[in-house]
Every structure is written in structure tokens, then in C-alpha cells.
């Protein structure tokens, strides 16, 4: 893990371990979403009536 970057002896290209890891994570996430058919960001869901308003304040005491 101490080697953060290295140069390919055949072509001279410099490779960065962290940049390569980030590319791999991004590609894996894209493949997982594609395989599952899931949306990246789900649609917003409206709060249920009992979940609305300020918690701890009785509903009748609020100005409407």
C-alpha cells in the first residue's frame, strides 16, 4: 500500500493507485445500477399526514 503511483516500464505511462480505485468504484456502481434496473435517485415520497408538522408541538397550537 505504500506505492501510490508507478510508471509502466513498457510504455512509460504513470499510474495513480487512488485515481484507478476511484474509476473502478464508479464503474462498479454503474454496473450494479444497470444490473438491478434501479434508479440512481428514487422518486420523492410525500410524508404521511401523521409525519407532517413540527414534532413536539401539539397540532392544534400551530398558526395556520
Q: Please report the distance between the alpha carbons of the first and last residues.
A: 60 Å
Structural class by helix and strand composition: alpha+beta
Arrangement of strands in the largest sheet? 1-2
Q: Determine Rg (CA atoms, Å).
A: 25 Å
Mean pLDDT: 76
Summarize the amount of helix as a percent range: 25-40%
* Element-level helix/strand string: EEH
Number of helices: 1
The global form is elongated
Low-pLDDT sequence parts: none
How much of the polypeptide forms β-strand, as a percent range? 5-15%
Largest sheet: number of strands, sense, barrel closure = 2 strands, antiparallel
By DSSP, the count of extended strands is 2
Descriptive report:
- 31% of the residues lie in helices and 9% in strands.
- It is built from one helix and two strands, in the order ββα.
- It has one helix at residues 17-36; strands at 5-7, 14-16.
- A two-stranded antiparallel ribbon has the order 1-2.
- Strand 1 and strand 2 form a beta hairpin.
- The chain is elongated, with a radius of gyration of 25 Å.
- The mean pLDDT is 76.
